Amino acid sequence: MNLKNTSTLCALGVLGLMAQAAHADDSSTIKVGAGIDYTTGNYGTSTTTDITQVPVIFGYDIDRWSFKLDVPYIHVTGADNVIPGIGPVKNSNPKGRGHGKGNASGSTTPTTETAGSASGLGDITAAATYEAYRDTSAQFGIDVTGKIKFGTADADKGLGTGKNDYSFAVDSYKGFGKWTVFGGVSYTWLGSSQYLRLNDVFGANVGASYKLDTHSSFGAYYDYREKASDTSFARNELTGYYAYKFAAGWKAQAYVTKGFTDGSPDWGVGATVAYSF
């Protein structure tokens, strides 16, 4: 069974982890998946920001190790100071989604909130999880995860920060028959630039899942992360999901997310399909 860091990933990545917890019988070592994730919210601004991501996910499991690579395409429409994966933050980049920002004196420092649209490659993430402890009879386990988010998204388009992030997480789970409870903590070193000054952040998550039968499960989890800068907000989100194995090697998942602070989207939905072999 593999659980990785949830508090530093988008809801889409977390959903895949909980599906693994609910389907521990999957012995395949290579996994390929794709999905779509849509979120919308005001993030404390006067503009609604819509973010659509289409990730392609690759995984490889061997012994107690699990490796994952997430390559997303992203489209963003909304305020230039809302950065995917970060939320609202002071952004002094003169080439942001607002285009042509500046004041009458010719300064490149933005003075007002602007909005626009942009698309392109998102931030590629790579993660390695080690199953540090497992007691099958007690249905209990502990995982540790290291993750790198590469700054491949175009910062000038407001698709990302343009810098690498590094995360470390410890997650655990405990089964009670068809029920599984899980939770974890994480710490992320966020990369700053001359336009975005970010803090390192602590995160935590807790949730539960229920296995309906050998093919399906559902569950929910709560996700928290500290605010990424002095001018931003903490993230508080609740996500519910349903996972279904519809054929040999095939798994589908769908979820809905509700945010409770200006650091989170107002709501979001998404789905993934994955094949294991």
TrEMBL record:
- Composition bias, kind Polar residues: at what positions? 104-117
Q: Which domain of life is it from?
A: Bacteria
Nucleus as a keyword of this entry, yes or no, is: no
Taxonomic lineage = Bacteria, Pseudomonadati, Pseudomonadota, Gammaproteobacteria, Lysobacterales
Supply the alphabetized keyword list: Signal
Q: Does the keyword Iron-sulfur apply?
A: no
Q: Which Pfam families match?
A: Phenol_MetA_deg (PF13557)
Annotated signal peptide: 1-24
- Return the protein name: Transporter
Location of the region described as Disordered in the Swiss-Prot/TrEMBL record: 85-118
